[in-house]
Amino acid sequence: MMKKMMISAMAAMMLMAPQTALAKTQKTVYLTFDDGPSRNTLKVLNILDKNHVKGTFFVTGQQPQCFPYIKMMAQKGHAIGLHTYSHNYAKVYASVNAFNKDLDQIQKVVVKETGHQSKLVRFPGGTNNTVSRHYGYKVMTKLTRSMNAQGYNYIDWNVETGDATGRLLSPTQLAKNACVPMKNVVILMHDTSAKDNTVKALPMIIQYYKDRGYTFKKVNANTRCRFKPAN
């Protein structure tokens, strides 16, 4: 009887082992795009569609003529976050009130285009940007508290293509920068009219993570990837 119980217990452990191993090796990648919409947005959306993956777009008000693409993002099932309307550091980081006022502007655009509010935020330059200290005392610490109090989820990143460095990097180099074997990857890319090479790099980035068994997800209220506030 004891021997049968031991065999049953061992069999149960063997059945459970692969499931446990799978859970431990589950990998997730979030494709995030800042600064759009732009003339490149449709190209990005088409690539995501072709590959059957979803992304997250942190939008601004820099190109009003492209606002209809925000509606298209939502219709295609992508997540939309707020990246301020003006993306003007001096303006948005002058105070908490200044930031909230600017954020409300882009929120109104999102509501107009999609019918829904977004509770996702990405700070221009990220939570750890050092430029903000020139405009407001401990403004990033104050802003993170303000976002939390208002029910926003602010998101940073842990991998980036380098498409905002000011140097013109090739699509291959951008993809190489973005392809990092980590368990949970939040990639920063930019969706502006000048980022043609980012569009060209995107299929390579997607294929890298597909080949390695990553699950592609959209940022949501529970996604966590945050820098420590710079000031």
Largest sheet: 6 strands, parallel
Morphology: globular
The CATH homologous superfamily is called: Glycoside hydrolase/deacetylase
Strand and helix order: HEHEHEHHEHEEHEHE
What is the strand tally? 8
Mean pLDDT: 90
Give an overview in words.
- With 231 residues, the protein is an alpha/beta fold.
- The protein has a single domain (27-217), classed as Glycoside hydrolase/deacetylase (TIM Barrel, Alpha-Beta Barrel), CATH 3.20.20.370.
- The protein is 44% helix and 13% strand.
- It has helices at 2-25, 41-51, 68-75, 89-92, 96-114, 139-149, 171-178, 196-211, and strands at 28-34, 56-59, 79-82, 120-121, 153-154, 159-160, 184-190, 215-217.
- Strands 1, 2, 3, 6, 7 and 8 form a 6-stranded parallel β-sheet that branches.
- Helix 7 links the parallel strand 6 (159-160) and strand 7.
- The longest helix has 24 residues, at 2-25.
- It is globular, with a radius of gyration of 21 Å.
- The chain starts with a helix and ends in a 14-residue tail after the last strand.
- 35% of the residues are buried.
- The model is unreliable at 1-23 (pLDDT under 50).
